[in-house]
């Protein structure tokens, strides 16, 4: 009977805190719903840029052979079982601009078709043995979308040549890796995202530290002492930024000890970590302001923490969901999360050896969003905690 009494008591205690109970129950279904809405497996499309140098040749019967155009048409015809295209094929003329788009994760792979492609296939059909035409794939070899796009394009190219020549094709495939992506181990591929993961974990310290002072009455006593909002939030933020810097440094030296090789400047990684921490601290303030206790803050903080971890690309690559375009930049749904830009910037720095100029867009977007999130946290803190006292 005592067991039943304790059971009833425990259930009443849980029901007295409906916010924590409802969040605990809704946590997994909420993210299942998000994954179902945002990651339909049948509609993933990869952006393949194609630079077609192929020259049309005339066959013995007077017809014209244009293999470059035929291959592009075949690539456009690669679809999922649902009929949705797997490859979004874009023809380009500027190789440097195309490589910049791949650097910026605005495209997945670049395929370059050589001038002598049609002529090599013609000679092979006639029974000759021409020098192999060099087809080039360019991309970040650590990027999962590049790997899939390149494999699909290569399979389509090989199938076309086999049908055209009925024998091993007169084509050689060359893969050019951006930066040092070809030299990265599987471990090194995941390390840049772990730097952002380390900073995102600050959300628990930020939310629980502030909630603890609210719950214990310390905040009220600090106000009586003449403390201003700038004093409290400024001091708290500086302390958390110091922790963020230490986290980045510890992560870096630990990764280096395990064989990680950095090809960019460490100070850029620290800068990215500091900017990301501002958005995380702002989110922590928001969580603390809507929590009544430290335990509530811990549970609620799991929601934004999970969003930051799994939808920014920090843990594994996510599919972009394009919304609109600004200039040459495609803005996607998850670009509203500051860590998304931080992950791209970290990958550019550590894997592609990018300097400050190459990550200005990511730093600009990260700074804007971090300031916005931090300002929202400060506004809510002032409104619910300081003015309410």
Task: Describe the protein in words.
This protein is an alpha/beta fold and 389 residues long. The protein folds into 2 domains: 41-183, abc type-2 transporter like fold (3-Layer(aba) Sandwich); 185-386, no CATH class. 60% of the residues lie in helices and 11% in strands. It has 14 helices and 9 strands. The chain has helices at 2-15, 18-38, 67-76, 95-103, 117-125, 144-165, 186-200, 202-216, 218-224, 229-257, 266-289, 294-310, 338-350, 360-386, and strands at residues 46-52, 57-58, 64-65, 87-91, 109-113, 133-139, 171-177, 322-326, 329-332. The strands form 3 sheets. It has a 5-stranded mixed beta sheet, with helices on both faces. Helix 7 crosses helix 11 (266-289). It is elongated, with a radius of gyration of 27 Å. The protein starts with a helix and ends with a helix.
Key words describing this protein structure:
389 residues; alpha/beta; abc type-2 transporter like fold; five-stranded mixed sheet; two-stranded antiparallel sheet; 9 strands; 60% helix; 11% strand; elongated
């Amino acid at each position: 009977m005592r067991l039943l009494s304790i059971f009833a008591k425990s259930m009443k205690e849980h029901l007295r805190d409906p916010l924590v109970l409802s969040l605990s129950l809704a946590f997994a279904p909420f993210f299942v719903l998000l994954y179902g809405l945002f990651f339909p497996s049948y509609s993933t499309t990869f952006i393949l840029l194609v630079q077609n140098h192929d020259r049309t040749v005339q066959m013995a019967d007077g017809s014209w052979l244009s293999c470059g155009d035929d291959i592009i048409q075949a690539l456009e015809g690669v679809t999922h079982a649902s009929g949705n295209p797997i490859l979004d094929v874009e023809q380009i003329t500027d190789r440097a601009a195309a490589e910049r788009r791949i650097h910026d994760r605005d495209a997945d792979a670049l395929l370059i078709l050589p001038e002598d492609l049609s002529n090599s296939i013609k000679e092979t059909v006639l029974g000759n043995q021409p020098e192999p035409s060099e087809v080039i794939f360019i991309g970040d070899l650590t990027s999962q979308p590049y790997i899939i796009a390149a494999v699909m394009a290569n399979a389509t190219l090989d199938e076309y040549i086999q049908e055209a020549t009925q024998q091993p094709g007169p084509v050689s495939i060359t893969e050019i890796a951006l930066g040092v992506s070809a030299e990265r181990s599987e471990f090194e591929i995941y390390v840049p995202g772990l730097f952002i993961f380390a900073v995102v974990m600050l959300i628990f310290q930020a939310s629980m530290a502030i909630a603890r002072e609210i719950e214990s009455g310390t905040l009220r006593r600090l106000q009586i002492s003449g403390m201003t909002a700038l004093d409290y939030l400024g001091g708290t933020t500086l302390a958390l930024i110091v922790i963020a810097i230490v986290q980045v440094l510890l992560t870096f030296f630990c990764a280096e000890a395990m064989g990680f090789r950095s090809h960019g400047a460490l100070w850029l990684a620290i800068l990215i970590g500091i900017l990301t921490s501002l958005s995380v601290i702002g989110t922590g303030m928001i969580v603390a302001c809507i929590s009544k206790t430290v335990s509530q803050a811990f549970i609620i903080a799991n929601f934004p923490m999970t969003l930051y971890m799994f939808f920014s690309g920090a843990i594994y690559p996510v599919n972009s969901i394009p919304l609109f375009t600004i200039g040459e930049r495609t803005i996607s749904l998850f670009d509203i999360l500051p860590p998304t830009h931080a992950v791209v910037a970290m990958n550019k720095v550590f894997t592609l050896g990018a300097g400050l100029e190459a990550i200005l867009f990511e730093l600009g977007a990260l700074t804007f969003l971090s300031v916005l999130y931090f300002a929202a946290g400060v506004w809510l803190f002032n409104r619910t905690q300081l003015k309410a006292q």
